[in-house]
Design goal:
- There is one protein chain.
- The protein is an all-alpha fold.
- The protein has 7 helices and 2 strands, in the order βαααααααβ.
- Helices cover about 30% and strands about 0% of the residues.
- Strands 1-2 form a two-stranded parallel ribbon.
- Helix 1 crosses helix 3.
Length: about 290
């Protein structure tokens, strides 16, 4: 059992150890394997085949296992490292501690959006992007999207999602209009509600965080650790409501063979959502 801490509470030494472990995974090529995996399993509604990681009920358990695998890789480098979480409802400006020079570095520069500060700046020689949907070799960010501004989600918006009594609902995709999963993942019909919660954070950071290979930006892991924490809070608030759908969908359902029921093994690990409902088997969260 180990602890995932709020990133704002990390000591200077803890930050240095985490950064060093990430850079070692990058050097070995292991980091880019995780990036490619996320790209492979980013399957939108309109594409054929199983949809396990996004726009689907298994969004939470799939990413829980994904983060666990990454965390285990980090701990193989340094057993004292874990993934911290970024509470973007509190640390919601470019001046927040995670963007410091000694941690994740800051915003991208004007023009090409290249990140010039911190250990993941291309100019420092340790962070070349090799697993990308589009061309480009350096980390990019575009905080707040100045050309079409948006803000990070608020505590009130998260609280609204946490009040959802139902985990998920048909049609079990990005168009679902009710349920905690849909509210937190953050798909919407358009306008100001087009991007909410999880999705809006990706777009607020901008750059490579917008797209299937978003783990190219190490902030991805801190963002998804907070998403994971929000799932645990929802579970505590709604003990009588569990993962849905509980059973494999019938052949008559348009999502048959695409959406994963509670006990259906998820690729690539062949592990069902039911095996990932209790995070306390693996770690705890520091308040």
């Amino acid at each position: 059992m180990y602890t995932r801490k709020n990133q704002r509470n990390l000591t200077r030494t803890e930050k240095k150890r985490l950064v060093s472990a990430i850079l070692e995974l990058k050097r070995s090529g292991r980091y880019d394997e995780f990036v490619r995996m996320h790209g492979e399993y980013y399957v939108p509604d309109a594409e054929d085949g199983p949809r396990v990681a996004h726009m689907t009920p298994s969004f939470f358990p799939w990413h829980r296992r994904y983060l666990l695998e990454f965390e285990r890789a980090l701990q193989a480098v340094d057993s004292g490292v874990s993934i911290p979480y970024w509470d973007w409802t509190a640390d919601d400006t470019p001046a927040s501690s995670l963007w410091a020079e000694d941690f994740l570095g800051g915003n991208g520069r004007k023009g090409d959006r290249q990140v010039m500060t911190g250990p993941f700046a291309y100019g420092n020689g340790n962070w070349r992007l090799t697993a990308r949907v589009t061309d480009g070799k350096f980390l990019t960010r575009n905080f707040g999207r100045p050309a079409d501004p948006l803000s990070l989600p608020t505590k009130a918006e998260v609280a609204k999602a946490l009040r959802q009594p139902l985990y998920d609902a048909a049609p079990w995709d990005s168009t679902s209009t009710s349920g905690f999963r849909s509210e937190i993942e953050g798909w919407g019909a358009g306008g100001s509600q087009r991007w909410r919660n999880h999705n809006r954070v990706h777009r607020w950071v901008g750059g490579v965080m917008v797209g299937a290979t978003s783990p190219n930006d190490p902030v991805f892991w801190l963002h998804h650790a907070f998403i994971d924490l929000l799932w645990t809070r929802w579970q505590s608030a709604h003990p009588g409501s569990g993962y849905l759908p509980r059973k494999k969908l019938p052949e008559s359902d348009p999502q048959y063979g695409r959406v994963f029921g509670l006990d259906e093994p998820m690729p690539p690990w062949n592990v069902p959502p039911s095996a990932l409902l209790d995070h306390k088997r693996f770690y705890r969260y520091e308040a």
